[in-house]
Amino acid sequence: MSINNPKYILVHCSAVSRKKAPTQFWAINRYHGVERGFPMSSMGYFGGYHFFYEPNGTELRYKRDWEVGAHCNSKVNGVSMNFQSISLCWGGDGDNETPTPKQTENMRIRIKKLVEKYNIPLTNIYVGPHRLWTKWKTCYGKMLSDDWAYLLVKPKEKLAYEREAEEKIADMKRKLDRVREIILKIMIRLNKFFKGRKIK
């Protein structure tokens, strides 16, 4: 049995407007199973993606991480991307609409977990749209830049005022530590001085 060895994260869109289809999970499952003939996953679904995000943000699964996908047959180093990636698909027409805030947030959470779990490099090549590997497609849609998915999880660079505030806080902590050290020394000396003395 073939096993998926995740090295990449590929993000797709369903290419069906959420205005026409507010829920899409089952329609994709039927399309992939009946019309495309994709195999059934261990979870009992035919969808070629690992994760799917309904327009209301609900995260659903077609496949386990270890299962070979059916979402991108382009090859990297002679190996189909289906055998070396985990796929996320958001329901919507990426050429005419962007993911909803809930879709975006739940994909961000999932991508972050996958990046950490599989030690996937944080670049817009390893975390990116389907179109990077299948040039004739626009997926995950013209409305989103190539680095959109990567930027969801890219560590935020601190602004100048944030760095300055952190430095001031660190300096204040150092000064407080010094004051505590001085107070402790004084208390030790006072304790030694008054030790054994009777107070009248």
Q: How is the topology of this model organized?
A:
Layout: E1 8-13, H1 25-35, E2 51-53, E3 59-61, E4 75-76, E5 79-80, E6 85-90, H2 101-118, E7 127-129, H3 148-153, H4 160-194
Parallel strand pairs: 1-6, 1-7, 2-6
Antiparallel strand pairs: 2-3, 4-5
Describe the structure.
The chain starts with 7 loop residues before the first strand and ends in a 6-residue tail after the last helix. The protein is built from four helices and seven strands; from the N terminus they run βαβββββαβαα. 35% of the residues lie in helices and 12% in strands. The model has no long low-confidence stretch (mean pLDDT 90). The chain has helices spanning 25-35, 101-118, 148-153, 160-194; strands at residues 8-13, 51-53, 59-61, 75-76, 79-80, 85-90, 127-129. It folds into two domains: 8-153, Lysozyme-like; 158-200. With 200 residues, the protein is an alpha/beta fold. The strands form two sheets. It has a five-stranded mixed beta sheet with strand order 3-2-6-1-7. Strands 4-5 form a two-stranded antiparallel sheet.
